[in-house]
Specification:
Elements lengths: L24 E2 L12 E11 L3 E3 L3 E9 L5 E7 L20 E12 L2 E5 L5 E4 L4 H11 L2 H12 L4 H9 L14 E11 L5 E5 L7 E3 L2 E4 L4 E2 L3 E5 L1 E7 L2 E7 L1 H8 L3 H8 L4 H13 L3 E6 L12 E2 L2 E4 L2 H17 L1
Parallel strand pairs: 1-2, 5-7, 16-18
Antiparallel strand pairs: 2-4, 2-6, 3-4, 4-5, 6-7, 6-8, 9-15, 9-17, 10-14, 11-12, 12-13, 15-16, 17-19
Length: 337
């Protein structure tokens, strides 16, 4: 609506119902995937607020991680004047304090399969607005230990904001149902290391693709260069098992180094020593053998193939206290449904 010089404004004295009203659509966070490109109203707990980032000369942005009662966490990107809506005094490392953000006129966007929210020209944001809806959310949070644990995790994780959102939203499953879900989390043990003689390889230092030996010298087919400089890279293939079944998984270089707490260059040197392979195998199984981990695995791109090895995105040590709280909540929800 545009008000110009010739606009006539008439005060309505009696019938308020004659004044047209505009309502935003309140959407639960787990339903945003079906509300793309719309403006909606949301309210949620602010789990994390990133530092303000300046883009160019005149723009600023800030990312929030917000969660509602559906336990879905979503990223909200604030632009320009909105970045100051939550000052440093509103958010600290104390998980008992969690601001409630009420917003309307947000835009639902999608990037690389991930849904996120962003502010626009008509957006309105309010922090700790007092009404029945926000009071209900505040009461729910104050009495929920699992929610506080989720907040503490966001404020202490070394992972990126988007990575931790992916992890927190991943549904917990059994391996037997892996083919039927999207991004998932499963608690499983390593029961076998496949290709034990081929877990380290030489890669091109430019593109990090595996090199081949051509006429006695390393060649990168991706860069089409011969006699390239190479660096060692790790690649582990495991068979993981839980009570429901098994799944072949692949752990790539960065994740493998993080789990082993040992760089690939040191493993390469160790392999060149007498009994080096035995010592490396002992290192691997001392870190992974006979232990349960939370494996975060993307869904199959094509039809599930039990003979295929699926790449792991993250491997986490199991927080059994959190798992017990989640299991209790899961069964309570089933009883009430």
């Amino acid at each position: 609506m545009t008000i110009a010089a010739e606009t006539i404004v008439i005060r309505e004295e009696h019938d308020d119902t004659a004044i047209p009203s505009f309502f935003y659509n309140l959407v639960a966070f787990n339903q945003f995937h079906v509300h793309a490109n719309r403006t909606d109203m949301v309210f949620g707990l602010v789990l994390y607020a990133s530092p303000i980032e300046y883009v160019g000369e005149h723009s600023a942005k800030r990312d929030f991680a917000i969660m509602d009662k559906t336990w879905t966490t979503i990223k909200l990107t604030l632009w320009n004047d909105f970045v100051h809506i939550l000052g440093d005094g509103h958010l600290n490392t104390d998980s008992n304090f969690c601001p409630i953000l009420f917003a309307c006129g947000l835009h639902v966007k999608s990037f690389r399969g991930r849904t996120y929210l962003t502010t626009g020209f008509y957006s309105r944001l309010y922090v700790n607005k007092v009404d029945n809806v926000t009071t209900s959310l505040s009461t729910w949070y104050e009495s929920n230990k699992l929610a506080k644990k989720r907040v503490a995790g966001f404020r202490s994780t070394p992972l990126s904001l988007q990575s931790f959102i992916d992890i927190s939203n991943a549904p917990r499953i059994r391996l037997a149902t892996f083919y039927a879900v999207q991004y998932c989390r499963v608690i499983a043990n390593v029961c076998h290391l496949e290709q034990a003689d081929n877990f380290i390889y030489e890669a091109c230092h430019r593109c990090l693709k595996k090199v081949v030996i051509f006429q006695g010298v390393p060649k990168c087919e991706s860069c089409d260069l011969t006699n390239v400089l190479t660096i060692p890279r790790l690649l582990f293939r495991f068979i993981t098992c839980d009570i429901s079944g098994c799944l072949k998984v692949t752990m790539l270089h960065d994740l493998a180094q993080n789990i082993l707490r040992c760089p690939a260059t040191e493993i390469k040197l160790l392999l060149q020593q007498p009994n080096g392979r035995t010592r490396v195998m002992e290192m691997i199984f001392s870190k992974l053998g006979k232990k349960s981990f939370s494996w975060i695995i993307p869904p199959p791109i094509e039809e599930f193939n039990p003979h295929h090895s699926y790449t792991v995105s993250y491997v986490l040590h199991v927080d059994w206290a959190e798992e017990c709280m989640w299991l209790t909540k899961h069964h309570q929800n089933k009883l009430h449904s």
